[in-house]
Design goal:
Aspartate Aminotransferase, domain 2; 406 residues; globular; binds ligand C6P; alpha/beta; four-stranded antiparallel sheet; Aspartate Aminotransferase, domain 1
Amino acid sequence: MFDVARIRADFPALSCPVRGKSLVFLDSAASSQKPFPVLEAMERIYRQCYANVHRGIYAFSEEATLAYENARERVASFIHAPRREEIVFTRNTTEAINLVAYSWGRTNIRPGDRILLTQMEHHSNIVPWQLLAQEKGAELVYLPITDDGLLRMDLLDSLLDERVKLVAITMMSNVLGTINPVKEIVRKARAMGAVVLVDAAQSVPHMPVDVQDLDCDFLAFSGHKMCGPTGIGVLYGKASLLEAMPPFLGGGDMIRRVEWDSATWNDLPWKFEAGTPAFVEAIGLGAAVDYLSGIGMEKIAAHEREVTAYAMERLSALEGLTVIGPPAHQRGGVVAFTFRRIHPHDVAHMLDMEGIAVRAGHHCAQPLHRRLGLTATVRASFYIYNSPDEVDRLAQALEHIGQMLG
Ligand code: C6P
């Protein structure tokens, strides 16, 4: 039994009234709320042992360093990374993908090479590759989607030829909710000698993810979407690849020895962590990982499937409402839709008046919206603390908006 009421009690922000109503927070795909254990873990460092990490030969610094490296260990085991050195802390998914584009990409991509993406990528998994392709004379190729937002897997083999050096795909779309067959894509791509990066911004927070089982080369995600703080993200990379890559940023902590005109690099993962890291945030992420593991990722995924299926049923029944993307059994907790001819921003604004927070716009996926013949959608996204009652509140509010606007 998934006890939503008990989980909600862990999230102080959820009991803050909004516009005189109880809050219905349906925008966790943008960023999730934070539970007490995460807030407390960060406060403990600031109050009890705050000092810079990897630098001080004194108790506070040693304790903070230990907590920071311990958070790395917990993140590694959360995604089943074989070695903790394969976990590089970044600011977010976007920075993790850019790190690979700058460091691996600039070393390995040559004129005429191809980078294979899909039509459902977030801008963070498009623009870094555009910059790289423009600089290197490489070409971007997109695996098309069907009208219901599934990947055209029937076209994969024909697009995956020896020119493709990198495949960069999202595990779950932030707009369609589609969960992609990443393991199969990785197997085919690796058989062709391509390196695979998985954008796991929407999957790691919501379902079990095992990098060894996927066998991907890189995987990127953000702490703030999984109950952790902002300013901390993760790049998982296979050690053999990370070892061979040049640094991304230069500065303190990432070096072994510095001469006037040259330097040598620190070991993994610190080679990629220049400057004072966001160590308090990393410690908060470690607490978030413990919190989610305590509930169980299988249970979280099952709960979100249930709420999403209910939301699709309730919303699809509303006159003039069109949900985009695949059926509930092929998606995670994201439901984007259009409602009559009402502008998505107006829908979101009117829902806000009822204390319901949703996102409206292109959700950082303009090419995908264009492919669907849309400029914007309204998006409700669900997490551990959302209940079917909140779906009812959303459906009732939409019905009311429909009646008001005719
Ligand atoms: N999507 C959304 O509302 P950052 O901003 O770096 O933490 O995450 C970027 C990102 C990358 N890939 C996918 C699939 C994503 O969904 C996101 C973030 C948020 O959908 C904010 S635009």
